[in-house]
Design brief:
The complex is a heterodimer of chains A (155) and B (831). With 155 residues, chain A is of the alpha+beta class. Chain A is 46% helix and 12% strand. Chain A has a four-stranded mixed sheet with strand order 2-1-3-4, covered by helices on one side. Chain A is elongated and about 45 Å long. In chain A, 32% of the residues are buried. Chain B is an alpha/beta fold and 831 residues long. Helices cover 28% and strands 20% of the residues of chain B. In chain B, the strands form nine sheets. A seven-stranded mixed sheet of chain B has the order 15-14-27-26-25-16-17, with helices on one face. In chain B, strands 31-35-32-34-33-36 form a six-stranded mixed β-barrel. In chain B, strands 2-1-5-3-4 form a five-stranded mixed sheet, sandwiched between helices. In chain B, β11 and β12 form a beta hairpin. The mean pLDDT of chain B is 95. Classes of the chains: A alpha+beta (155), B alpha/beta (831). The interface between A and B is medium-sized, with 11 and 13 residues.
Chain lengths: 155, 831
């Protein structure tokens, strides 16, 4: 974690919360933005800043799929929803299709470190299933064609 | 606090309980046992496992009884078909992926899952799928903890106990759903209290003891109820052996006051008993300085000759305050009646005067004070010492009670401690200025409230600011504490060993207690003692000025200082060190070494070759806890019985037998006795013990007064040159007294001796955790790794007093109130 991030946690995030530990999720998100994932040292540092135990930070990180704990991801992290609505609307097929297009299996990263593919649970956008999330953006009502276009744009 | 009562019906039976009681507890009172997993007494409620569901009339869904408080006129059913079916279903779920590897699980035979399935479980599983095996191996999390994550039922007891009771919080629930795993940060080795509380509370074979692994099955074990010998919290525990090897110490939730609580020393220090280093036969020193084994007959004959040769004036004895009441009683009787001297002590570390004052101020001669009662007071004040390391389980009790009741906890001591994080206010006093600190409190109290009381006139002339300048505590903080004390309904004071060691603050404490008794009324004082039976040693009259029951001795003898001086002047013909390593503990190493070398005949009876033992003319082996019966009196005044789990091996004998036989050899009518005989005599002879019955009971009050306490109200900051450190000593978290250094397990927890300083000092010296520094004073140098203690101010250092060869007392100058040392970073040559 660099000095700037540390200052941002202390100056911008912490003042929003009554107890220091409440700033855990926001701080983790901020730190993750740097390189896409959280290292052991990041979690220790967050724990120190927020008066927590490192294991508590790890537990938060491993509870939510949005954090990548000790798991480097590519420039674009593709998260495919595999929960009920998306599955019914062909989410599994979308997943297979992406695997084919990128030539990697779920959980892997492409050799050029551009894409990482993960499955996640309900993204809260069931009305527009199937859905994927790439970094912070949602792509909805997907079809094979749409997926191809998206990947093409990001390549 | 609510005190109202609530009446409800459980399975048709009417019960009346205190408002706020959980249905679970109310049911127990009514005689109905509800199965549980996640519930654990004294932990925050979780209500996650659903084992304890009950039916409540008028509520459509079943309710978890472990987090649902009773309401008036509730009608609860704990044994209906729905409840039974649900229990069985919950267990079926738990078993769906449970490995059921009971035959190789250490917990087999004492597992809550086994027991509950046996009692409530489905007789048949309906899950046809293959079980998921989430982890292929067990994880070693510490030298004492191994974790099998497959067996976990996710009750979170381990996580909660570590945080809420132990105060470490180094365990977390990592992952979610069936993948959730209660473990350390990234499964790395734990840097924690190693107390094993996580193991003790785990209902299944998930958290397990590494040293006990695959060593025994519970039904193979022979057990005996005992008392921990490592500090005066005096935790009850059960020692268990397989064959002749003691393999486990477990807490005794059914009848010990400490319930499931034990610290690392109590839970893992049992292996001293099995140590290969123990002294196994009597040894006599040859002319060339080597030791030769001799028979007991010959040894006792030599002892007798030495006693007779020396004569009463030139004889003395020091007995360890970790022995049983029976042994201590007989020791002083032997010294007084057979040897004919009152030259005796039960410590190497402080003067008889200091102990008299402390006894008076801390209410030692009175009856008992329960630690729970003290901890539940509206305001709890901890004075001096390092409670979290000296008396770990007392620390656990204070923490969880404070967490649940949110009462005011105040700490005033020279070093940082783990309990600081629970305290509303934690202040650092300059070492050996507890007296000044209490005087400041007294002054602040009379500023707020007019008190006319004897002894208080002198306080008028003082100012809080002046005293604050001595003890180093901010005047506003002192006034804040005083204000809390005045509005409290009850006050608990815990008085640490530092007050004894530095002869500091007893007079002021007595005055404070008297003042509070006049204002608050309900005042409970609990001494914090570092030796398991210090209180018993005093009760039994192992003291140069006091006979059993605090009766003033007809003729006073020398205390340990007097004994050392007498020896140094060549005036001591016979010295009996019973379990006490004077050389390792007396606050002037060079002086005591010279003195011991001048003793006519030195007898050391101990379990191990202590520092003093090689200087002895005669070394006698000694049985230790677990090998003898007897009673111990903890710091609360709780008299607890302990049983032997096995006989002492070979030629090892109990002090009782040794003293009895030696006495009998000299005086025909001195009887060779058994513990039961001595206990009967104690009950007759020692006031306060007559009414003690059973495994555990508080002693009654003894004498009227042992010391006249008048504060002088003159204070000074102990000397210290710029850049130097005051050197404090005491027990380490993993070590109590000198015995525990022979426990292989405890030794593994802490590699060796350390020197502890605060983070500001570490920064100033440019050293980090584990870096080597050189400690130097009085011509001695020692290279030690640094341990950083948050909250300890610069200028204060600590070295445990537990290590042979790294003796802290080399640095002590007994003529100084607090000795100082220089500490500098140690760089290897060429660096
Ligand atoms: S041994 Fe004690 S301090 Fe360490 S993890 Fe277990 S409960 Fe926590
Ligand atoms: S390890 Fe044991 S105590 Fe901890 S959650 Fe699992 S079953 Fe409960
Ligand atoms: S050392 Fe003290 S606190 Fe620890 S188990 Fe023994 S008696 Fe209890
Ligand atoms: S199931 Fe995919 S967004 Fe809800
Ligand atoms: S014991 Fe009540 S829910 Fe677990």
């Amino acid at each position: 974690m660099d000095e700037k991030t540390r200052r941002e946690i202390e100056g911008k995030i912490l003042p929003k919360y009554r107890t220091r530990r409440s700033a855990c999720m926001a701080s983790m998100q901020l730190v993750q933005r740097q390189k896409g994932y959280l290292t052991k040292e990041d979690m220790e540092e967050i724990a120190r800043l927020l008066d927590m135990e490192p294991v508590e930070v790890e537990a938060v990180g491993k509870f939510y799929t949005m954090y990548n704990v000790e798991r480097p991801v590519g420039r674009y992290h593709i998260q495919v929803c595999e929960n009920l609505s998306c599955s019914l609307m062909g989410g599994e097929h979308i997943l297979k299709h992406i695997e084919r297009l990128l030539g990697i299996k779920t959980g892997q990263t492409t050799g050029d470190k551009r894409f990482t593919l993960s499955v996640v649970q309900c993204l809260g956008s069931c009305g527009t299933a199937p859905v994927i999330q790439v970094n912070d953006d949602y792509y909805e009502n997907l079809t094979d064609k749409k997926v191809e276009e998206i990947l093409e744009r990001l390549k | 606090m609510t005190t109202g009562l609530v009446t409800l019906k459980i399975n048709g039976r009417e019960v009346t309980v205190r408002e706020g009681t959980l249905i679970l507890d109310a049911a127990k009172e009514a005689g109905f046992d509800i199965p549980t997993f996640c519930y654990q007494a004294n932990l925050s409620g979780l209500g996650s496992c659903r084992m304890c569901l009950v039916e409540i009339e008028g509520q459509r869904k079943l309710q978890p009884s472990c987090i649902t408080p009773v309401m008036p006129d509730m009608n609860v059913f704990t044994e209906t078909d729905t409840v039974k079916m649900t229990r069985s279903a919950m267990l079926e779920f738990l078993l769906s992926n449970h490995p059921l590897d009971c035959p190789v699980c250490d917990k087999g035979g004492e597992c809550e899952l086994q027991d509950l399935v046996y009692k409530h479980g489905p007789r048949k599983g309906r899950f046809a799928e293959d079980k998921v095996r989430h982890h292929d191996k067990d994880y070693i999390l510490s030298p004492v903890i191994v974790k099998n994550a497959n067996r976990c039922v996710q009750c979170m007891r381990c996580v909660r106990v570590c945080k809420e009771v132990v105060g470490r919080g180094v365990l977390g629930a990592v992952g979610r759903g069936v993948h959730q795993e209660e473990t350390s940060f990234l499964r790395t080795r734990l840097d924690c209290d190693h107390c094993g509380m996580c193991i003790e509370v785990c209902p299944v074979g998930s958290f397990m003891r590494l040293p006990y692994r695959y060593r025994a099955r519970p039904w193979d074990l022979v057990s005996a109820r005992s008392v921990c010998g490592y500090c005066a919290t005096g935790c009850r525990l059960t020692l268990e052996r397989r064959g002749d090897t003691v393999v486990r110490a477990i807490a005794n939730p059914e009848d010990g006051f400490n319930r499931k609580l034990l610290c690392a020393r109590g839970r893992f220090g049992y292996d001293v008993m099995n140590s290969e280093e123990r002294i196994k036969t009597p040894l006599v020193k040859e002319r060339d300085g080597s030791f030769r084994p001799v028979s007991w007959d010959r040894a006792l004959e030599l002892m007798k000759e030495a006693i007779l040769r020396a004569g009463p004036e030139r004889a003395a004895g020091v007995a360890s305050a970790t022995l049983t009441n029976e042994e201590l009683y007989l020791f002083q009787k032997f010294m007084r009646k057979v040897v004919g001297t009152a030259n005796m002590d039960s410590t190497s570390r402080w003067s008889a005067e200091s102990s008299l004052k402390f006894m008076e101020a801390a209410g030692i001669r009175g009856g008992g004070t329960s630690v729970y009662q003290c901890a539940e007071s509206d305001v709890v004040v901890v004075l001096g010492g390092q409670l979290s390391e000296e008396n770990p389980v007392t620390d656990y009790i204070l923490r969880y009670i404070n967490g649940a009741r949110r009462n005011t906890l105040v700490i005033a001591s020279p070093r940082g401690m783990k309990l600081d994080s629970s305290a509303q206010l934690s202040v650092r006093t300059v070492p050996a200025t507890t007296g000044a600190f209490i005087a400041a409190l007294l002054k602040a109290l009379v500023e707020k409230k007019e008190v006319s009381m004897e002894g208080m006139e002198a306080v008028k002339g003082l100012t809080v600011e002046e005293l604050s300048g001595v003890c180093g505590v901010n005047a506003d903080d002192i006034r804040w504490i005083a204000a809390r004390l005045l509005t409290a309904g009850s006050v608990g004071v815990l008085a640490g060993t530092d007050m004894l060691r530095y002869d500091d603050g007893a007079e002021e404490l007595a005055l404070l207690v008297r003042l509070l008794e006049n204002t608050v009324r309900d005042v409970r004082v609990l001494p914090l003692l570092d030796r398991a039976n210090q209180r018993g040693a005093w009760d039994m009259g192992v003291h140069p000025y006091l006979e059993p029951g605090y009766r003033p001795a007809q003729r006073r003898g020398h205390d340990v200082h007097g004994i050392v001086e007498l020896a140094d002047s060549g005036g001591l013909g016979f010295l009996y060190l019973l379990g006490e390593d004077v050389l390792g503990l007396y606050p002037d190493r060079a002086g005591v070494e010279r003195a011991l070398s001048r003793v006519g005949f030195l007898v050391v009876q101990d379990s191990f070759m202590t520092g003093s033992a090689p200087m002895a003319n005669l070394v006698l082996p000694m049985a230790m806890y677990g090998e003898k019966h007897g009673t111990m009196t903890n710091q609360e005044g709780r008299v607890q019985r302990m049983e032997a789990v096995r006989r002492p091996e070979g030629e090892v004998r109990t002090p009782l037998e040794t003293i009895g036989r030696a006495g009998n050899l000299i005086e025909k009518d001195f009887p060779v006795v058994r513990p039961g005989d001595v206990w009967k005599e104690i009950q007759k002879q020692v006031p306060g013990y007559g009414e003690v019955r059973g495994m555990e009971a508080f002693k009654g009050a003894s004498a009227d007064q042992v010391a006249e306490l008048k504060p002088s109200f003159s204070y000074a900051v102990p000397e210290r040159a710029e850049g130097e450190f005051w050197l404090l000593t005491g027990n380490h978290l993993f070590h109590g007294a000198r015995l525990s250094q022979h426990s292989g397990i405890l030794r593994e927890l802490l590699g060796g001796c350390v020197v502890e300083i605060g983070s500001t000092a570490a920064q100033r010296l440019g050293v980090g955790e584990g870096d080597m520094v050189e400690v130097e004073a009085r011509g001695y140098r020692e290279r030690l790794p640094v341990r950083i203690r948050e909250g300890t101010p610069d200028g204060v250092a600590f070295m445990p007093e537990n290590f042979d060869g790294k003796d802290a007392n080399r640095f002590f100058d007994k003529d100084r109130v607090v000795s100082t040392v220089r500490i500098r970073p140690y760089k290897k040559q060429g660096e």
